[in-house]
Every structure is written in C-alpha cells, then in structure tokens.
Prior knowledge:
Elements: H1 6-26, E1 41-47, H2 92-106, E2 111-114, H3 131-148, E3 155-158, H4 177-185, H5 195-200, E4 203-208, E5 211-215, H6 237-254, E6 258-262, H7 278-290, E7 295-300, E8 307-318, E9 321-330, E10 345-351, E11 362-369, E12 379-387, H8 389-395, E13 400-405, H9 406-410, H10 417-428, H11 433-442
Parallel strand pairs: 1-2, 2-3, 5-6, 6-7, 7-10
Antiparallel strand pairs: 1-11, 4-5, 8-9, 8-10, 11-12, 12-13
The protein binds 2-acetamido-2-deoxy-beta-D-glucopyranose (6 copies).
Amino acid sequence: MLINSIFSTLIIIILGGGQMIFMNFCKSTYKSPLFPLQNYSGRFLHITDIHFDPDYIYPSSPSKFCHRKSHKNKNNNAGKFGSIQTGCDSPYTLINSTFEFLKKNFSQVDFIIYTGDSCRHGRDLKNPVVEEDILFCHQILIEWFTKYFDPKKVKIIPTFGNNDLLEHNSLEEGPNTLFSNLTQIWAPLHLNLTHNFNIGGYFRQDVNSRLSVLSLNSMYFYKENLLVPDCEKEDSPGSKQLKWIERELINAKEENRKIYISHHVPPLDSDGSPAFYEKCYEKYIQLLGDYSNIIYGHFTGHTNLDTLTFVTSTFRTFGESLKKKYNLILVTDEEKEESHSNDPVVLVLNNAPSIIPVNNPAIREYVYSTKDNNDFGVLLNYFQYFANLTEANNIGKVRWELEYMAKELYGINRLQGDDWENVLREFRKPNLELWERYKKYVYVSR
Ligand SMILES: *[C@@H]1O[C@H](CO)[C@@H](O)[C@H](O)[C@H]1NC(C)=O
Ligand SMILES: *[C@@H]1O[C@H](CO)[C@@H](O)[C@H](O)[C@H]1NC(C)=O
Ligand SMILES: *[C@@H]1O[C@H](CO)[C@@H](O)[C@H](O)[C@H]1NC(C)=O
Ligand SMILES: *[C@@H]1O[C@H](CO)[C@@H](O)[C@H](O)[C@H]1NC(C)=O
Ligand SMILES: *[C@@H]1O[C@H](CO)[C@@H](O)[C@H](O)[C@H]1NC(C)=O
Ligand SMILES: *[C@@H]1O[C@H](CO)[C@@H](O)[C@H](O)[C@H]1NC(C)=O
C-alpha cells in the first residue's frame, strides 16, 4: 500500500500524526497484533452462527421453540445438546462443548474468523427478542472467546449477522448505537476499530505485513435490510463500503499484501439467488473478480450449509471495448444449468456450516502458507469438524470428529483458482462420486 516518494511520505506523516491524536482522544488500548513472518504454514479457525439461546430448556417441546414444555410428554423431545431441524436455537450445553473442543484442540491457531449470528432467532412470539437480549448475547460471546482464548495471542476477528441487530434484519447508516455498543463490547479483543467501524461497521485487521482480513458489514448489501437502499447512489452506506473495499484492495496490491474477506451473508443465498441488492451484488462481484489475484480467501456463514461458490470470468463487449465480467456459481445438491459453463475459475468463496444445529454443528480449521514470499496466505487445506448431534443426545456427550479434509477430498494441491477449476469440471461429469460426497457434506453428514 505504500509508495516511496516524498509526496506519499508527507501524507503518511500527516495521517500518522492525525491517528495519534485520534488514539489519544479515544484512550484506545489498541496494540499491534502482528506476529512475525514464518517460513511454514499457519492455522486459523472459521466459526459461524452460534445462535445462543439462554432460554432453551431441557426437556421441552421443539414446537414451543424449546422454551416451554408441552402438556403431552411425548412432545417434550428436545435434545440435551440441541434439536436438529427444528425452530430451536443452540442450548448452552452445545456451546460449552464447542468451546471446550476449541480450547483443547485449537489453542495454537494464529487467529479466528467469526462470521456472526450470535443471538437467537425471534421466532417465539411469546418470548420476543428485545434489545437487551441482543446486547447480552454479544457480551457473553466475547466472554466465551476471551475465557477460552488469550486475545493477545490469538486474534479474534468477528462481525455481526442479521440476527445480531437491535432489530431483526434492520441496520441504518452509522454512527448508530449498535456500532458504539460493539466498540465497547469488543474492546477486550483489541481490534482495529477505526472511524470506518464507527460509521460503517467494517474494519481491516492485519495479521502481519503480508496479510489483512477485511471484516465487512454485509447488512449494507443485504436486500432484506430495508433501512438502506441499493448501491446505485454514491452516498448510500453500501456504496461507501464498496469504495472503502476498493481502496483497501488497491492499497493491498501496491503493498504486495494479500486479503481475506469475511462477512455474514454470502452474495448468493442458499437457493442460488442473490442475497444482495442488485447493484451492490454486481459491484461487489466485480471487485472480487478484478482483485482475485490478491484475495486469497473469502469466508461467510448464514445459510448453515457447507458450500462452495465459484467465481468465473468471462469477457463482455461494451461498445467497442471488451471488459471482464464475473459470474457466481453456487454448487448445491441440485444440478444447475450455469454450472456447466467452461469459463475459468478465478476465486472460490467458502461458506462454512454453523454451530446452531440446523444440520449437525460444525467448525472449520484452515491451513495457510506462511512462506515469506508471494505465497503467504495461500490456503493449503481445511479440516471440517462436526458433532453427530443425534449420537450426542443419545449418549449424553458431544463427540467432535473430523468430517473430511478438503485437499484430500477434492484431490487438489492448494485451494486456489486453478485447482478449484478442476473440481468444478469434476462436478460436471455425470453420476460422479465426488458430487455425491459433496452433497452429503452440504448438510454436514446429517
Ligand atoms: C524464508 O525463506 C527464504 C528463502 O529460503 C529466506 O530468504 C527468508 O529469509 C526466510 N524468512 C524467514 C522469516 O525465515
Ligand atoms: C462444559 O464442558 C466440560 C467438558 O465437557 C464439562 O466438564 C463441564 O461440566 C461443562 N460445563 C457446564 C457448565 O456444563
Ligand atoms: C447501546 O445500546 C443501547 C440500546 O440501543 C443504547 O441505549 C445505548 O445508549 C447504547 N450504548 C452505547 C455506548 O452506544
Ligand atoms: C487499521 O485500519 C486502517 C484503515 O483501514 C489501516 O490503515 C491500518 O493499517 C489498520 N491497522 C491494522 C493494524 O490492522
Ligand atoms: C450419527 O449417529 C447416529 C446414531 O448413533 C447414527 O445412526 C448415524 O449413522 C451417525 N451419523 C454419522 C454421519 O456418523
Ligand atoms: C482433539 O485432541 C485430543 C487430545 O489431543 C485428541 O485425542 C483428539 O483426537 C482430537 N480430536 C479431534 C477431532 O481431532
């Protein structure tokens, strides 16, 4: 991001001075999280969609959202660790088991990406979600993370989901009380919450001089959020965020830094239709494609599904000129026409399955290259872990196990464009075994 000229040095000094004043003013406790470059591979976790329900009781009736008992005893069949495929959220027992597993097996990771939806759903009209519930679940989440991990050693990089807002799916332009509350609640994580977070809910967190995570606010693109417009107007919150992303990508390219992007709602919803407003979607996809050579990872949650979305490139004519355009192909359990395109794959978007047992609860560990060269940040593999919830409820104990290893499953060397292109080609072959396995994992071996 830095250019060596007197001019840019001057700007940096001015900005640097300004930042110092800002930091003093805010009494920021922000400390650099940067860890030194190493010449081997590092690891990080991606966790998503915890949906903690403090009102979950056991035994109770899933048709009453696991909040109350039914007078018919046979209906009180909620599970001790959660109730798969019901309207219930996650009980404390499941979350405790998850964090115990994380602590025992993953205390050495470099950082954790958490893509939101910490709070329960507001489905139970007799027990609606109010503002205090939202602030409480944000608070307890940070208590868990800091109890089980030392944030000075393991950087925890969160965002919020559509159920983490003071009102479901609704988030107005900042500054607002959600952003100011989160700035306080997330303080123990020592994050880089600058002015951008205060106005837009997004921030950049450097892992070191070679790799940065952009934690985005997908609520400003999400078409269910009726408090913001599409990204047509220059001054809409979505457009401002897009401009910030582009600036960060340009800077990263200049500084030879790689980027991971994380946010809650993926660009395509579980049925393959855009989850974003039309213009926000188009512009965001264009950015992903145009900067796919420095975006080394893209992580989302929300759909509770374990899916791959392929970004393919194609040329379109605009008057006299040719311009690169991009398409997204979400691979689901259905055969889709567009997945038969032969366009090159420039990037793959990874959607991780959730803790909340819509399917079996799951967490993911990535391995990335820490070679001190252009490879830094390349995803080398991921390990998908899950807990068989039916078994857990039967035996009264959660057993976390490895579900699959991506590199081995797909028979690829590293998780990058060219390798993924072969996978997409494999998926297109008739009655192939790989797609069958993929389909099973989409629902976390349910
Ligand atoms: C990593 O390896 C390269 C090439 O072997 C070497 O030049 C570089 O100094 C090493 N960096 C570190 C941090 O060990
Ligand atoms: C949390 O999980 C651990 C490990 O399974 C267990 O020993 C402990 O009792 C649990 N705590 C609560 C409060 O359920
Ligand atoms: C946090 O949110 C509550 C509820 O919306 C609000 O009353 C309070 O002022 C907020 N606190 C901060 C520091 O923004
Ligand atoms: C914090 O974010 C700002 C703005 O994106 C960026 O200039 C700065 O380098 C970031 N610092 C760290 C340590 O992430
Ligand atoms: C999960 O456990 C149930 C009950 O023990 C068993 O029938 C099922 O095969 C298990 N599923 C997987 C994927 O291990
Ligand atoms: C977690 O770590 C324990 C102890 O090191 C080990 O026995 C167990 O196999 C690990 N679990 C998984 C799912 O890898």
